[in-house]
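S1.2 Input.
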Amino acid sequence: MVFAILFLAFGYIASSEIQTAVPNVHAASRTIMLAGSFVTGWNGSNPGPTISLTQGDSVALNLVSADGAPHTFVIDVAHAGIVPNPNCGIDKCSSQFSSSTTFTFTADMAAGTYTYYCSIHLQHMFGNIVVRSSTNGGPDFSATSSPTMLTVAQSSSGSATVTLTSLNGFTAGVSLSPTSITLSASGSASSTLTVSTTSTGLYSTPVSNGAYTVTITETSGSSSHSTTIPVNVGPTASGSSTSMPVYAGGLSGTVLLGVVVALIVIAVVATVVALTRRRTSA
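S1.3 Output.
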């Protein structure tokens, strides 16, 4: 009997040791609330709050329409930019909601920074999700942009600063085509991106008004991250919603059109005067 009890006790202890030998999982269950509004963005700010997750996290996202308008929640996993028709086979997309809903997903994407947004109100409701590696052991770097969104007038340009920060002692060069940045351990460094909407050729036109996305890929060895910057191309400084082509000599199509009209008027007047003189002389 004593031996039987000892045998069972040993077996219980052994099984307990086997169970505790399983590596701890860093993932957790997370509950997050986001209230969306066309005017005020997510949770009252645009861009919305940065959401930090660990690979493998199970997330229950409580989504509320703060303005009663229909909204969606999309995570741009594919890094395709802020678009009205996301690829929900790759991206993580909620159903449309105008009151409240719960959207559940698993943070099974690669470690990095992703954009979340409403596919109905593209430039008014977006933010960032940072997914950290579940191992949390290797050196890496993070990337952020300032500002997080650019508004550029036609025939103009704007700039954003991309800042890289060393994580876990990362020290190496990072490629941002066509430039590169070298990070020191626990340090940070920045590079400026310039976005131009001007015309480039003799008969070319400036970039059309609308919503665009610039994606910057930062690469160092096997570490790669993407930073997405929404770009809104607005009207010209004069407030016009359209723009004419820019031609040689810097004359816009509007100016040339005025010159042509003036020449036509002058030609018509000259013709009328000439005909009148002929009739008078006749």
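S1.4 Remarks. The first strand starts at residue 29 and ends at 37.
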